[in-house]
Amino acid sequence: MAKSGPVGESGPFVPAPPIPPSSPTTRGRGGRSPRACARFSRPPRACPVGESGPFVPAPPIPPFPPTTRGRGGRDPRPPIRVLFPLAGRARRPYGGNVVNAPEQRPSAAAEAPALAVAGLTLAFGARTVLRDFSLRVAPREKVVLAGPSGSGKSSVLACLLGFLEPAAGRIEIAGEPLGPRSAWRLRRQLALVQQEPDLGELGVEEWLQEPFAFRANEALRENLARVPEWLARLRLSPAILQQKGPELSGGEKQRLALVSALLLDRPILLLDEPTSALDPDSRRAVYDCLAGLERQTLLMVSHDAGPVLDFADRTVRLPGEEAARGA
Hints:
By secondary structure, this protein is α/β, with parallel strands linked by helices.
């Protein structure tokens, strides 16, 4: 109740009028709007009772409407991409969400080549190994790159991996130009089978597991379960897993290098003379294994394309060093 003032000569003071309740638009203590407390579930308190009667409680504060942005300026509703996962990555201008977009697969004619080399010139000092060489390999195509010794076959593979910088020319991997900034990322699409793999002193099983210790390959560790399958297809005994590098022949090392590359399951496989140390039966097993790969793109270097004509889709022959020098 409101207090009466002291009695003076002119009579008692008139009581102070009751304080009206806060309206919904009146800012409360600290200059904050009472609507800002809508996230709390505590009901509004009633005002004290005065001489003129009880105060009317403030009306309940409505919750945020669905279209109102919440704290931090963010929409409290989940984004559309969470409620409706995209069926495909459809292109749209300036961003925005696409709901139930149909998956768009490029046609075979419009699909970018897996490997593209244009106007490649490679020289070591005054010696020109390759001049104005061009090559296009379609996705899932198997191509043999043949030519005499010194014609630049292995150098082409080194350029595709970004290990050698050509004097001129342009290289694309899956439609993306190869350069200093993209080389590391694009190498993740490639697997190389070397002519003379080096196992060092490691055991075979440990050597096959070594690539999966890297973060980029951790998700593929389950592929190690296919080791017995690849060994059988390449005419290698399971007992070879218990051997060490110095105990292996050159042909065994070459086939183990192919097993390691197949376990990585990269879309593009580069092979540098992978059968040079193999007998005819083992060579045939390698070609049959490669012929059965339906998802990978293959580029294989060989000094003699005769035995592999039935395995590859086509053969590209490089000119000799003398032809490159005289061009």
